[in-house]
Amino acid sequence: MLTAYDYPTARLFDDAGVDALLVGDSLGMVVLGYPDTTHVTLDQMIHHVAAVGRARPKALLIGDLSIGTYPDPETAVTNARRLVEAGAEAVKLEGGLRQAAKVKAIVDAGIPVCGHLGMLPQRVLEEGGYKKKGKTPEQSAAILEGALALAEAGAFAIVLESVVPSAAEWITARVPIPTIGIGCGEHTCDGEVSVATDLIGTFPWFVPPFAKPEANLAPQITAAAAAYCKRVQSVPIQHR
Ligand code: KIV
Ligand code: NA
């Protein structure tokens, strides 16, 4: 799974054969320039889900329910429907036990739901930063409890974020649905997800320690703009 936030990136990634494209609320940071995902609105999610949807990807198109858009089952269903109307084929939300009833309501409405456990970016302000999860047996057991509740509620997969590798493996072995890891080490979960800009190197100002870039496009983009400036500014004097 890779994140995508716009039409061209969605097309290019889809051509590579990724299984799923996530329009993540990480777009708040890597596209919209906010400090974290707590500023993202449902209208912004809809705007970007629609752009990715116009790429008509073969990949499963998952849209994040942004912060505050799933306070109760009824509101969760209403807002999940809005993402689906924009082009999402599934939605993702953060949290475990507290979200089970909402997951069940969305699934009952016919919309597939992906869970998200471990580090929950929508709670980064309460947590005081991005911290590793599953460091103790108690923490791991709590994540597993949440994962089992999500599976029971009908979720089709669960993103595990920043869970220590041994705990991610332990949880993955005990959950009946696929886990999709980010920042959990390699091959510890059933699948992996990467943030697009981490993969292609277009957000050099913050690169998470676990990112494994396959390209470093930022310098090429700046170099292209610099070459353009140079070419335009070097028009021979007699042509002016
Ligand atoms: O918003 C996002 O990009 C995500 C991934 C990190 C899973 O939720
Ligand atoms: Na997200």
Automatic annotation (TrEMBL):
Question: Which coenzyme or cofactor does it need?
Answer: Mg(2+)
Does the keyword field hold Metal-binding? yes
Q: Which GO terms describe its biological process?
A: methylation; pantothenate biosynthetic process
* Keyword tags: Magnesium, Metal-binding, Methyltransferase, Pantothenate biosynthesis, Transferase
Q: Which residues bind 3-methyl-2-oxobutanoate?
A: 25-26, 64, 92
- One Pfam family name from the record? Pantoate_transf
Q: What is its EC number?
A: 2.1.2.11
Which enzyme class, named as a word?
transferase
- Cited Gene3D superfamilies: Phosphoenolpyruvate-binding domains
Q: Please provide, alphabetically and separated by semicolons, the GO molecular function terms listed in this UniProt record.
A: 3-methyl-2-oxobutanoate hydroxymethyltransferase activity; magnesium ion binding; methyltransferase activity
Catalytic residues per the record?
161 (proton acceptor)
Bound how, and how many: what does the cofactor note say? Binds 1 Mg(2+) ion per subunit.
Its gene is panB
What is this protein's record name?
3-methyl-2-oxobutanoate hydroxymethyltransferase
State the similarity comment: Belongs to the PanB family.
Q: How would you summarize the oligomeric state and partners of this protein?
A: Homodecamer; pentamer of dimers.
For this protein, the record's InterPro entries field holds:
Pantoate_hydroxy_MeTrfase (IPR003700), Pyrv/PenolPyrv_kinase-like_dom (IPR015813), Pyrv_kinase-like_dom_sf (IPR040442)
- Binding locations of Mg(2+): 25, 64, 94
